[in-house]
Amino acid sequence: MIKDPIDAVITWVDGKDPLHKKKLAACLGQLNIQTESAHPTRFNEVGEFEFCIASLLRFAPWLRKIFIVTDNQTPSFWDQIQKSDFADKFELVDHQKIFKGYEDVLPTFNSRSIFTLLWRIPELSEQYIYLDDDFILLNPLSPEDFFFDHKMMLRGRWELQQKYTITRKLKWLKSGSKIIPRAGNRRGQAFAAEKAGYKRKYFRAPHTPHPQLVSLQQKFYRNNPEEVLNNIKYKFRSEQQFVPTALTTHLALKNNKTQVVASNSTMRLKMDKISTLRLKLSLWFADKSQKKYLFGCFQSLDMASQKNKQILINWLTNRIGTLSKILE
């Protein structure tokens, strides 16, 4: 039995939903902009979410609850879950619930805005793991892979900050373009470090599931309410935002609530760009090396060739099993 419960939180959106498309188009039209963060396929998923859920049930059965945060949507497999023995383990959380008091910024298409308020999920455990819906566990894990003695197990490394430069933004303004450049993850992490008091360096986390502590988030945002407003007001990801998961990391570092365990444990594949040969080699190596990769991040699977998509789905099915099978 787990002495201190650990939850998982996943943010999910069905980009093919007509209502979502309508909201997105209306927002872009109202702002009179285009943005790389609102690419037509950015919010699409073609089965990877089911493998994400299946992997949590198979490889992290010790999780207390799995919260799925979404905008008035329901996953296609939800009825299956509700009819299974795992029904009590899952909960859908609508944006309206965590944005209570800030409804004027909705709808939002900005993951950073949503991350900022995840700690407001009712009955969320003190220790929780945040992961995107395209993250998949690849091996059996233990609670100690994420938390030990109330400390967050970090994956990443320290780097010197590259101070923010407005050159890119000035170039964009000078061109008169209405296309807003996509906000960089490194800059967002470094900005978070600054918020926590780090001026010369930041702890750079790779694409990985992130352990988080609710108490650190509550204390920071309640003492700095302006930071909430400043970080959730953008409809789309902005270079003016910090990465909320990175803020928690740096607050934990400040409070001696961390331990660095590895530089990277994620196999990250950009499925829209990878060749078939490289995909096969990557998957072969993941099988051969066994514990080297704890997680997989398979981005833009909807844009992959049909051949590569099927190769990956077959591999995931063999490695994890289908959600339907696990729910039986």
List the SSEs and their pairings:
Elements: E1 6-11, H1 18-31, E2 34-35, H2 48-59, E3 66-70, H3 78-82, E4 90-94, H4 95-98, H5 111-116, E5 127-132, E6 135-137, E7 147-148, E8 151-155, E9 157-160, H6 167-175, E10 179-180, H7 185-195, E11 201-204, E12 210-213, H8 214-223, H9 225-232, H10 244-254, E13 258-262, E14 266-270, H11 276-289, E15 295-299, H12 306-319, H13 323-327
Parallel strand pairs: 1-3, 1-5, 2-10, 3-4, 8-13, 14-15
Antiparallel strand pairs: 5-12, 6-15, 7-8, 9-11
Oligomer: single chain
Categorize the overall geometry: globular
Strand order of the largest sheet: 4-3-1-5-12
Number of helices: 13
Q: Strand-residue fraction?
A: 15-25%
**Uncertain stretches of 5 or more adjacent residues:** none
Q: Give the SSE order as H and E letters.
A: EHEHEHEHHEEEEEHEHEEHHHEEHEHH
Alpha-carbon distance between the two ends: 23 Å
CATH-level-2 architecture: Alpha-Beta Complex
Number of structurally distinct domains: 1
β-strand number: 15
Q: What's the gyration radius in Å?
A: 20 Å
Helix content: 25-40%
What structural class results from the helix and strand content?
Answer: alpha/beta
Q: Sheet bearing the most strands, described?
A: 5 strands, mixed
Protein name: Stealth protein CR1, conserved region 1
Family: Belongs to the stealth family.
GO molecular function: transferase activity, transferring phosphorus-containing groups
GO biological process, one term: polysaccharide biosynthetic process
Explain what you see.
By secondary structure, the protein is an alpha/beta fold. It has a single domain, classed as Spore Coat Polysaccharide Biosynthesis Protein SpsA, Chain A. α3 links the parallel β3 and β4. α8 crosses α9 and α11 runs parallel beside α12.
